[in-house]
Amino acid sequence: AMDTDLSSQDRKDLDKFIKFFALKTVQVIVQARLGEKICTRSSSSPTGSDWFNLAIKDIPEVTHEAKKALAGQLPAVGRSMCVEISLKTSEGDSMELEIWCLEMNEKCDKEIKVSYTVYNRLSLLLKSLLAITRVTPAYRLSRKQGHEYVILYRIYFGEVQLSGLGEGFQTVRVGTVGTPVGTITLSCAYRINLAFMSTRQFERTPPIMGIIIDHFVDRPYPSSSPMHPCNYRAGEDTGAVYPSVEDSQEVCTTSFSTSPPSQCVFTVTKAHFQTPLPVVTDTLKVPVMGLAFSHQLSSSRLSYQPAALGVGSADMGYPVLFAGGLNAAHPHQLIGPGKEGGVPPIPSQPAHGTQADQERMCTPLDGVHYSAATPSSSEDTETVSNSSEGKCGSPHDLLETIFIRKVGAFVNKPINQVTMANLDIPFAMFAPKNVELEDNDPMVNPPDSPETESPLQGSLHSEGSSGSSTGNTHDDFVMIDFKPAFSKDDILPMDLGTFYREFQNPPQLSSLSIDIGAQSMAEDLDSLPEKLAVHEKNVKEFDAFVETLQ
Amino acid sequence: PCRTRCCAPSALTPAMNCRAEVLEVSVEGRQVEEAMLAVLHTVLLHRSTGKFHYKKEGTYSIGTVGTQDVDCDFIDFAYVRVSSEELDRALRKAVGEFKDALRNSGSDGMGQISLEFYQKKKSRWPFSDECIPWELWTIKVNVVNLANEQERQICREKVGEKLCEKIINIVEVMNRHEYLPKMPTQSEVDNVFDTSLKDVQPYLYKISYQITDSLGTSVTTTMRRLIKDTLAL
């Protein structure tokens, strides 16, 4: 009778191959999500340590984590090794992107030669893994990680859990290798549509991952591998859903042309002096995500599409500053566009601030405009003319104050930082950005400790804008979706839309301003007869000149 | 999508099926090179081993294959290739010629480039050696012209997505574990592998291309032998 069982040597070899294959698989996957290009050298002389004849480095922490997860076991039927890749924003929100599964099924290939064929096919499978890890969506995300988010991995052993990937996830098979004890299969299930993120994803607990793949952070997080069910604590925060939320959602998503006032706008929830409205924030999460992410995945570049955050609560009298860059600690400091945007920063002087506040428009909710302030005093004119400095309610300035600030991940966000992320929308930092703000650099302006309770409150830094420490006037600030026709936002950093916004309100021509203008106009008028006389004298010369041109 | 079909076996040898896979891509002119390199390198990644070192008693050890990431400039795409400058140069040369031929052909910008893996079968004099293909990859290329920057931008992304699909297709085929030449003895190794490179050892391959005119017939057939098999004799 033929001995169909594996010889003990073969069995030992096979176990070793599978073990090292599992370890190398983890290395390939994790290294492919580090955000860097990988390069290893070929070597014609074999070195003893290159398993499967492939030069795959071994990152010690990764090997350690993998060994810990495996705990001396090997993938077997019902016991799969999974590498979970997720994304974590600097705000603390995390989301699963991919699950790579190394599984074993019962289909055995008794005839196959272990030391030769299985080994070579495992090598081929690793090559396929190298190729496939570059074509799933998480690869491009991981190449861009750093400040706003990092990519984390987690290894677990046991049953595959795909529920964290949201609906509609896709699967790609990397390959299979038959062995006498079963068939090894390697596959990846990946989230395809971040917009479909369910509300379960707002994980606020500390990372459950072992090590963070982020070269900006050099200490590993404590590893605590038990899988946490993602639970969105909906009950705590949400209250009534404001019907107007949905309405303004629709408003936001419309594009507007660039001509004045009727450009709507939609305005956002109100200010600080209201009671905290976590409700609003929370319910806004999902729709915002929709906007932000569906764009994110289709193009790697983030283009500017302001998140829809409108809430016109019946309670709120009027629109408030949206992400207006107001510094609660320095009420008169208006944070405006950073230098990178090409717009001068706003001087933070109380005088300006006050003035700004006065000029600022209180646009009612239905208000259609935030056009440049119309006050007629010269002071106002000046204000308007300084609008490029981000004062006041000019549309230019409103728009300019909406931007994302890049900070190092996990940096304690200062309150004066105006970002979409501060609006407490998870992954809001994936919403398209516009301009970076140096003024918000925590290095430059040390962050103030957050003092507000309401996430909304905190994010809006409401107090400052109205300029009054009492915060009674409040205003406007409108967010509009600004998409110039025929312009694609994400080709260049300075695109048509940005250009238009920045130069939308140029300072008044001095000759047109009443005082100065009037004066020089009078002078001009006086000098006209003289000039005419001179020209008449030279008329023959002029005619001759014209002749030469013909 | 990949289509597999079998070529007729040669009459002189035991029946051997050559599997053939066809991939199609539509790209802009400046994307041709990178797209071709991405596909060819991905195939060759799977069809190259480390250098063999034969020892006594017919055993051999295998060198190590390194890999590296390549980012495309004109396509939102990245791929992995074998770390071998010689191999990269050989592929770039072939792809460069293909691209030039496409451009100069004056046709609608359609052509195809083929990567064929073959084995050599030595024949006795006066017969010359036979080349028996066992795997044939054909990439059909359609060059499109785009009108403006916005279209180009979309094309960058779309072609990137398409190439991701092609990579997945290639890996699927590789995973079928179908016919591969037997591992050769030392005397036969040059009939199976290209041993001319110093750091890796791909299976014997040749790259050829054709430019199609608008009627779909092949106007120029150019064969380029990258393996100097005549010199090896």
Automatic annotation (TrEMBL), chain A:
Main location: cytoplasm
Autophagy-related protein 13 N-terminal domain boundaries: 96-196
Matches recorded under InterPro entries: ATG13, Atg13_N, HORMA_dom_sf
Disordered, as annotated region: 333-392, 438-472
Transmembrane segments: none
Record's keyword terms, sorted: Autophagy, Cytoplasm
Compositional bias segments (type: Low complexity): 458-471
Protein name: Autophagy-related protein 13
UniProtKB/TrEMBL annotation, chain B:
Single GO BP term: autophagosome assembly
Cellular compartments per GO CC: Atg1/ULK1 kinase complex; phagophore assembly site
Keywords: Autophagy
Transmembrane segments: none
GO molecular function, one term: protein kinase binding
Keyword Membrane on entry: no
Intracellular or extracellular location(s): Preautophagosomal structure
Family from the record: Belongs to the ATG101 family.
Protein name in the entry: Autophagy-related protein 101
Organism for this UniProt entry: Alca torda (Razorbill)
